[in-house]
From TrEMBL:
Domain Exonuclease span(s) in chain numbering: 10-181
Keywords: Hydrolase
CDD domains: DEDDh
Protein name, as recorded: Exodeoxyribonuclease X
Keyword Hydrolase on entry: yes
Matching PANTHER family: DNA POLYMERASE III SUBUNIT EPSILON, EXODEOXYRIBONUCLEASE 10
Record region (Disordered): 231-254
Species classification: Bacteria, Pseudomonadati, Pseudomonadota, Alphaproteobacteria, Hyphomicrobiales
InterPro entries named in the record: Ribonucl_H (IPR013520), RNaseH-like_sf (IPR012337), RNaseH_sf (IPR036397)
Organism for this UniProt entry: Neorhizobium huautlense
EC number: 3.1.11.-
């Protein structure tokens, strides 16, 4: 790990645990910074942490079974609106926020807390940079890629905010060292470009192996990531001038 001047280019990775589906039902926020060092290499720093948040309501057994945070542990914790801005708008330079499947975090990290800081989605970015990998969840990327410098114990337990942010930060570091910050930001504004068909009779095939008539049907799929991926392939074949409307991402098979 490297401690670097906070005036350096910086991206803060965020992970949230929630106690329900309401707009303020966050029960924990974790963060991990990634910065550009003097040798123009992105590094994971020692700046990380987590804060328990009172979600303002009892948590269901379903949610507690995921993160194992108990109601009594958050009873005296601050509320989300009292805590969010301090983490999402830290002192010093901040070029972007990042999260794995960032649309989830963005549901809670509203612009009034972030100050309009742009977001990187490491899931969408991984689809582009490492398309040959079989799966793209945060933890699967961890064990498929085994990122250099990732301390196993710091990344545990999974499904807690700081360990998950720490793992994501190692993916982000490697993504930034393989392509530009600007490109990751641009990809993150679009739907996910899936490397393979995720379901149906052509599941697992690359889009270039799919018949044009089948692609035309997939380009009208309910899932925006499937639509975008099929339309991108059609456009490369000169078969489509359609554009995808960017919506909140749907659940994906990746």
């Amino acid at each position: 790990m490297t401690i670097i001047d906070m005036s350096s280019p910086r991206v803060r990775v965020i992970d949230l645990e929630t106690g329900g589906n309401g707009p303020d039902n966050v029960c924990e926020i974790g963060w991990q910074d990634v910065v550009l060092d003097e040798n123009a290499a992105w590094q994971v720093t020692e700046e990380r942490g987590a804060i328990l948040i009172n979600p303002g309501r009892p948590m269901s057994p379903d949610t507690m079974a995921v993160h194992h945070i108990l109601d009594e542990q958050v009873a005296d914790a601050p509320f989300w609106k009292e805590t969010a801005a301090a983490v999402l708008r830290p002192p010093g330079r901040l070029d972007a926020l990042a999260a794995h499947r960032a649309a989830f975090e963005q549901r809670y990290c509203k612009p009034r807390f972030t100050g309009e800081t742009p977001w990187i989605c490491t899931w969408k970015s991984a689809l582009r940079v490492w398309p040959d990998l079989p799966r793209f969840s945060n933890q699967m990327l961890r064990y498929q890629r085994m990122p250099a410098g990732l301390v196993h114990e710091i990344g545990l337990p999974a499904h807690r905010a700081m360990p998950d942010a720490y793992v994501t930060a190692h993916h982000l570091r490697d993504l930034l060292n393989q392509t530009s910050l600007e490109r990751l930001l641009a990809w993150s504004k679009e739907p996910g470009l899936l490397p393979r068909v995720p379901s149906g009779p052509d599941r697992g095939k690359g889009w270039d192996r799919i018949e044009t008539s089948v692609l035309a049907g997939l380009a009208r799929d309910r899932d925006q990531d499937i639509r975008f991926s099929a339309q991108t392939e059609l456009s490369q074949r000169g078969e489509s001038n359609q554009r995808v409307t960017v919506e909140p991402p749907q659940k994906s098979f990746f």
